[in-house]
Amino acid sequence: MADDAARGGVRALLRLEGLAMLGTAVAAYAQFGVGQGYGWGFFAALFLLPDLSLLGYLAGSRHGAWLYNAAHSSTGPLLLVAGGLLIGWPAAVPLALVWLAHIGFDRALGYGLKYREGFRLTHLGRIGPADPW
């Protein structure tokens, strides 16, 4: 595990926070997405879109971690909402809610932001099976 990864009660709290983010984003989407004409099919079609950032790992772990973290930080969807509200783009809110739901889902499962030293090293601890050596 990375020395600066969350562990114990802090890790559990961060995962619970992810679950709360997921639940809140889905509930808000029911009102501000479905209620505004964006159906659950739209939600489902976009839910895994942030995981395309994994393709950054084809350029190496440094680039992969940067791109993954950019797509899995709540900063992006929050800026999308703010910008969308500022310019009057109604689709920004449902898009951001799907994005936040994805981030919350990942966090609840224990998938944290990545360190460039390795894909399985995250701020929530090591993911996947232990190395055999």
Architecture blueprint of SSEs:
Layout: H1 8-32, H2 40-47, H3 61-71, H4 75-87, H5 92-109, E1 114-115, E2 118-122, E3 125-126
Antiparallel strand pairs: 1-2, 2-3
Describe the model.
The protein has 133 residues and is mostly helical. The chain has one domain (8-126). 56% of the residues lie in helices and 7% in strands. It has helices at residues 8-32, 40-47, 61-71, 75-87, 92-109, and strands at 114-115, 118-122, 125-126. The protein has a three-stranded antiparallel sheet with strand order 1-2-3, covered by helices on one side. Strand 1 and strand 2 (118-122) form a beta hairpin. Helix 1 (8-32) runs antiparallel to helix 5 and helix 2 (40-47) crosses helix 5. The mean pLDDT is 91.
Task: Give the SSE string.
Answer: HHHHHEEE
**Broad shape:** globular
Spans where pLDDT lies below 50 across 5 or more residues: none
Strand order of the largest sheet: 1-2-3
Structural class estimated from helices and strands:
mainly alpha
N-to-C span? 14 Å
Rg computed from alpha carbons, rounded to a whole number of angstroms: 16 Å
